[in-house]
Specification:
- It is an enzyme of class 2 (transferase).
- The structure is a single chain.
- This protein is an alpha+beta fold.
- The chain is 54% helix and 18% strand.
- The chain is built from 7 helices and 7 strands.
- Strands 2-4-5-7-6 form a 5-stranded mixed β-sheet, with helices on one face.
- The chain binds adenosine-5'-diphosphate.
Amino acid sequence: YEKIDEADVGKDELAEIGRTFNGMMEALETNYRKQEQFVSNASHELKTPLTVIESYAKLLLRRGFTNEKVATEALEAIVNESSRMNELIVQMLELAKNKERTSLSIHKVNLAQLLDDTLSQMQQAYNRSFELKGETQLYTYTDEQKLKQLLFILLDNARKYSDDKIIVTATKLGESISITIQDFGEGIPKDQISHLFDRFYRVNKDRNRKTGGTGLGLAIAKELAERLKIKINVASEIGVGSSFTLLVPIQKDLSEEDNQ
Ligand code: ADP
């Protein structure tokens, strides 16, 4: 770098450079702290199932050969915790992949058609009722794969945290297409809504252990939404249900801007 000669730079400019520099350093520090927090959370989340696996494997060694009931219990726990670890690792890699800014693949997409296909798949896989309402011709340019991944995360949550039908409504709303995924499940406490998209955040850890959540789904959803310039709004009431609304911008072609 060329050294800046103070005489050439006015006091105001120096102060401005100082402020910019401080701002950059603060942003770097915040980023670093977030990264540290992530590593520490990730280690903790991976360590928990590993500890369970280790203790059941030891139990299996001690008593499994003489007691079939103990052996079955231990093996079941080992299988469950291993798949939990597997899911955690897959999702962590997913977060890392999104961070790498892999290029987008932008094409014209009929959102209503995409929703119809995705809902049919979900219905088939989970034997639950997913109802599609709204318009049938809704086009925009976007990365279909990434949008589908985002929809899948929200639909999967709606399924996991409710027992009733799930209603999906897609309509044009100004310069956007609005997609609302509504469930009639347990709902989310108001003061926790702002944390939902934090990594590893779960409203109720005990409850969600049973459903096998990692707390990474919505963090991935947030990053996907940012890349696709989609806004996510959440409305929820305890005991009534939740709705997650995506505002997908109607745009001609993102490719020149973001598909380098
Ligand atoms: P998880 O893998 O635990 O589902 P997410 O990041 O997808 O993680 O969601 C974070 C938390 O937000 C969940 O653990 C759950 O407590 C809450 N949550 C998300 N979607 C819903 C929903 N539709 N209804 C109720 N709670 C939800």
